[in-house]
Amino acid sequence: MLKRLFEVRDGDDGLPGRERKLALLALVTGTQMAVLDSGIVNIALPTLADELGISGAASIWIANVYQLVTAALLLTFAALSRVIGRHRLYIGGLAVFTLASLACALSRSFELLLVSRMLQGIGAAAMLSIGPSLYRIIFPTRLLGSAIGLSALTVAFGIAAGPSIGGLILHLASWPWLFAINVPVGLLALFLALRSLPREPAQRVRFDVWGALLSIVMLSGSVFALDQFGHGGGGAMALATLALALACLVGFVYRQRHVASPLVPLALFEEPRFSFAAITSMFAFLAQGIAFVGLPFLYQRVMGVSPIASALLFTPWPLVIMVIGPVAGRLADKGNPALISSLGLGLFLLGMLALTGLDADSSHLDVIWRTALCGVGYGLFQAPNNREMIGSVPLALSANASGVLASVRTFGQSLGTALVGLILGLSFGSLTLSLWLGCVSVVVALALSLYRIPLAARDRRG
């Protein structure tokens, strides 16, 4: 598949073959670091708590602040890329992330580490907010699905490998190396990005400062509140934060309708294919978030396996996505992406339904084929659906579409995590109930995806 991505044909848009290779390596490296750092530190939290002299509860913020800052800035950075150019934003974000990684490695206090992690989140948001849209200007339109499939593989590997890489580094070295390893990799990615990313002129548009502030409070407030609910901390503070986030959402939508240069042009949502793909993505990521958080509890508390065995039982899901994602992207280039996504969601639903049948007597083989089926379905869904989101809007709006894609992914996963936490906290709640809620979410996503199939078919004929 990689060889096909670099083939050059007459009339191709995008970059020439050799430049594609370097640009792809820069994007994959930056994305991989950003995704890995959302999970690589989790396994080290007990160690960090002991060495920094803080409580276990406080140490969780070393992980949470990264996710919170990243989520808050996705829409803002996507819009800022139109003002300064995508290549400048990506390179700047990569530079900030690399320097912040060095600061994390050198931190010897909780406060300094927390600030450094916030800076890492800023750099990650800059890269993740526009990463998918850069694929559109690097690769020819005929290869967009395959390229986005490779992006899905990159993210899946980061999800799958984060805990394992973190555990290996801690086994061989001290915790600062969790962050120091990013420095040489980041410098290499920075060199490649400076050399290969396509340059864009800055657009003469006004940056919507008030819209940016509203979106930051809206996104960070909602993720914070959902995180509190998911960890059993729901109370007056969480409810007040959620209410503030909803108020900012109302204000944000109102401003986007009435400002000349909106942060998120609502013209995006006038394209039915984009709107359906975005909503479908949110419900699918909600279901995945439920499964990713609920299954480790199911394996350890119900089936009685060790944490290490639990991690191994979970890995078929992201590993299968790594295999299926690029194939699905290539199919989306040749056929109807909505149809392929719907097929994937159907298989994903079968896998989720199968997971609800797990109990204390289930064997490891029972778990493996069920999680692998979920991975096959999700792998078939993700790349074609992302192609629909990025490819169905005008090129000038692709950066904004990329920001929306990253935002719905983050929000869906956060909502899924919160639902599992709420169910575990209920006296009548159960892990099986959370999986059934995940099935309902997939049913909604599948219904939306089936409805849009004729829309995608019509546009392909046109």
From TrEMBL:
Family: Belongs to the major facilitator superfamily. EmrB family.
Domain Major facilitator superfamily (MFS) profile: 23-457
Organism: Salinicola endophyticus
Keywords: Cell membrane, Membrane, Transmembrane, Transmembrane helix, Transport
Keyword Transmembrane helix tagged: yes
UniProt-annotated location(s): Cell membrane
UniProt main location, coarse: membrane
Pfam families for this protein: MFS_1 (PF07690)
Domain of life, source organism: Bacteria
Residue ranges of the TM segments: 21-45, 57-77, 89-108, 114-135, 147-169, 175-195, 207-226, 232-254, 274-299, 305-327, 339-358, 418-451
Topology of the protein relative to the lipid bilayer: Multi-pass membrane protein
Name of the protein: DHA2 family efflux MFS transporter permease subunit
UniProt xrefs under PROSITE patterns: MFS (PS50850)
